[in-house]
Amino acid sequence: MTEPLRPGQTIGILGGGQLGRMLAVAASRLGLHVHVYEPGAGCPAAEVATRTFTAAYDDTAALTEFAQSVDVVTYEFENIPTAALDVIEALRPIRPGRRALATSQDRLTEKAFLRDLGLATAPFANVESAEDMAAAVDEIGAPAILKTRRMGYDGKGQARLKTTDDAADALAAMNGAPAILEGFVVFSHEVSVIGARGLDGAVACFDPGENVHEDGILRTTTVPARLTASQRTDAVLLAARILTALDYVGVLGVELFVTETGLIVNEIAPRVHNSGHWTQNGCQIDQFEQHIRAVAGWPLGDGSRHSDVVMENLIGADMDRVPEIAKSGAALHLYGKAEVKPGRKMGHVNRIVQGS
Amino acid sequence: MTEPLRPGQTIGILGGGQLGRMLAVAASRLGLHVHVYEPGAGCPAAEVATRTFTAAYDDTAALTEFAQSVDVVTYEFENIPTAALDVIEALRPIRPGRRALATSQDRLTEKAFLRDLGLATAPFANVESAEDMAAAVDEIGAPAILKTRRMGYDGKGQARLKTTDDAADALAAMNGAPAILEGFVVFSHEVSVIGARGLDGAVACFDPGENVHEDGILRTTTVPARLTASQRTDAVLLAARILTALDYVGVLGVELFVTETGLIVNEIAPRVHNSGHWTQNGCQIDQFEQHIRAVAGWPLGDGSRHSDVVMENLIGADMDRVPEIAKSGAALHLYGKAEVKPGRKMGHVNRIVQGS
Fold this sequence. Notes:
The structure is a homodimer of 356-residue chains. Chain A has helices spanning 18-29, 60-68, 82-89, 98-105, 107-116, 130-140, 167-173, 229-245, 279-282, 287-295, 322-328; strands at residues 10-14, 33-37, 51-53, 72-75, 124-127, 144-148, 158-161, 179-183, 189-197, 203-205, 209-214, 217-223, 250-259, 262-269, 307-315, 331-334, 345-355. With 356 residues, chain A is α+β, with helices and mostly antiparallel strands. The interface between A and B is large, with 44 and 44 residues.
């Protein structure tokens, strides 16, 4: 299917969290219907979707009905079981494609892909056994960080090695899951590029944002990021190279460490990205609409930045600050989650700092 | 009820057209649920609402269930039957209030209200009989326009008098409905002010836009409008005076004729207004969120204009131009209406002309 979707056709979204919710709103703006597939009941995206399938990812009948009810399928998270993707792909195109998912679902595959593209990454080694771990520690040393190859996010599935003496404890913390040992990178700050590639191969990147994390969770993204002109060009060009190498369709997030010797790729996410939320109030076309346009086979929109923005995540008890933020006149975006939990992303706020 | 709604509470919207749809999206952004009440099936707002009641405005049981399911009720159109409002108001607050609805539902009441506020209007006279018509024509002369007092919109329910000889035909065209004869105003152009008033009495107006109509339907709104500094101040002050006189809560549209002797009020609409759609891409907080904030008892947001914008309505066969507009990078907003009809508003496009 290479024809663009017509208004009235339907995009299926796997996952019903806040990213699915904001994708659904963007699709509605273009006159497209959205069907959401999500195992959990009462998910944030259900409220703004035409239809929601509440079923598990191993429910072949539900997956089949979902796929048959839509024209193209996309997703808001990368850890979708392979078997579910197989069921869907037999019926409808999945965008971004399987290669992007396979690459980003496994930290080892991802790092190898980036290295083969000629991009700089932290030193890394595969760890599936105590012997692997010993060899990896010999090669990489400490400090280092051991991460499960699959299913990690927001700092979960990770163990730090302050010294090589921590190796055994770190390995035990993986509970036998295949892992990757990553060397420590000395960097001044982290930036990310949100890139988009259309079905026609056109690439458009948003201006890089500068990220600050707290407890492994993104706290703020500020645009413009502190980057020299040549670093900014490098960041955008390497994102474009990744998009093209993956024959990618949609929006991709690329996290980068800024070091004295250049940019080092931390990780990629084959989806709209928390560090791109500022685009909702800094650009005419935001990352959510850009993703929907790409997935729908539409031309990409104008994502140039019209304002300087600071995006702040509202996490857990930050919800107590909503009345005060509402008063400030800043642009508030809440996700409609019923329960506040520590560490849970409940919303975000975009503050326009000045026109640019 | 004067406490602000908390995230997770529910706003009821009477009417499920494009205005209801865009209000629902704004409410979702603030973490509020939306229940829509609309007699027609498959309405544009249903897709982005938590729940939709498909029932007639004389269905007391459905109106009761709807009102009981929400915390506050608003509306996207002013011609709601009084009996339906009575059912709802016994259960939940209606914002904007009944006075604003009663005033704007009847052209004669509206004109009298404006005149009593000391604002300039076209000359007008009540016409309920042939005798009234003769007296009105004597007083106002021709050219003039005879309009039904109730239920007119987009040029419907109107008959022009080029000369006084057209009086009998015009009266016959009203089919016995009470009408109002309005004198012709010589004006250079039309502007509108979208004003908002919070539950706390705070007033905030968007920058006036300049409107161009075709066949009685709004075609484009351009900001900034051609107005002198003092005209701009007058426009905003008179909108504020109307909002305060009505003890209004929510967004109100005020259409104004620009004449050599000053601004003349054409009509008011107690709701978000087509001529305010440019705010979606010209302001940090748009008219839809401003309305939801007011109705929810929240503080108004920052509606200052960051860009010059031209809003163009996509009417009927304009939908054929969607692929070309999508390519232009402009901000497209489609309403998800299944059927294209001549004269039907299908969407709009906002073009940022330059930052300001």
